[in-house]
Design brief:
binds zinc ion, 8 helices, binds D-xylitol-5-phosphate, alpha/beta, 8 strands, TIM Barrel, single chain, eight-stranded parallel sheet, globular
């Protein structure tokens, strides 16, 4: 895929004005909605779950890209499919039987993604890369928005890209954490396909314009 995508993370939205912020994304140049589900166990924070995603999906007109930061994600795969999630991403570090989990996600008709913590090498996905629709590289430690970008991410993108090409895979590369207008272009030049951005978009004076500027930067 050549077209580079922006996925605003609703974690940084105003939860008391969620419909307003969803409409902003609907009417913007953004491509996907990024939804961060945290369980207080895999990560030291709790965000939102099914009832909120159900409400979001009623209003969102773009792809729902759901990032599960939870232990034992297999328990809830069917629930997320029923809510209309398009891409379901689980953490490598949270799955004992990753291959089985990937197959279970795909069996529902959703696209399957795997996320890697900053300390996890891309090499761990070598045996499943052809099964994956997406790999999410965490460029901060998962759990919170607004953290600073980890520079080692560029090296990991290059390693992953090389693996994807060597295996003739169709896997998309998504970067999540600390994305802003200074690193966006460098990330897509390194091989990233989708950039998640939370606080950089929602904390700006004009989020719609910020999305549009980011899209122009990576076009
Ligand atoms: C962090 C989440 C991210 C987060 C990114 O654990 O996975 O999606 O919302 O937020 P920013 O863009 O503020 O780093
Ligand atoms: Zn995320």
């Amino acid at each position: 895929m050549n077209k580079k995508l922006i996925a605003p993370s609703l974690l940084a939205a105003d939860f008391a004005n969620l419909q307003r912020d969803i409409e902003m994304v609907n009417n913007s140049e953004a491509d996907w909605f990024h939804l961060d589900v945290m369980d207080g166990e895999f990560v030291p924070n709790i965000s939102f779950g099914m009832p909120v995603i159900k409400a979001i999906s009623k209003h969102a007109t773009k792809m729902l890209d759901t990032h599960l930061m939870i232990v034992n994600p297999d328990r809830y795969i069917q629930d997320f499919a029923d809510l209309g999630v398009d891409y379901l991403t689980v953490h490598f570090e949270a799955c004992t039987h990753l291959h089985r989990t990937i197959q279970a996600i795909k069996a529902t008709g959703m696209k399957a993604g795997v996320a890697l913590n900053p300390h996890t090498s891309a090499r761990v996905l070598e045996e499943v890369i052809n099964e994956l629709d997406l790999v999410l590289i965490m460029s901060v430690n998962p759990g919170f928005g607004g953290q600073s970008f980890i520079e080692n991410t560029y090296k990991k993108i290059a390693q992953l890209k090389e693996m994807i090409l060597a295996n003739n895979a169709n896997t998309l590369i998504e970067i999540d954490g600390g994305v802003n207008d200074e690193n966006a272009k460098k990330l897509t030049d390194a091989g990233a396909d989708i950039l998640v951005a939370g606080s950089f978009i929602f904390n700006s004076d004009n989020p719609n314009q910020t999305i549009s500027d980011l899209k122009n930067k990576i076009a």
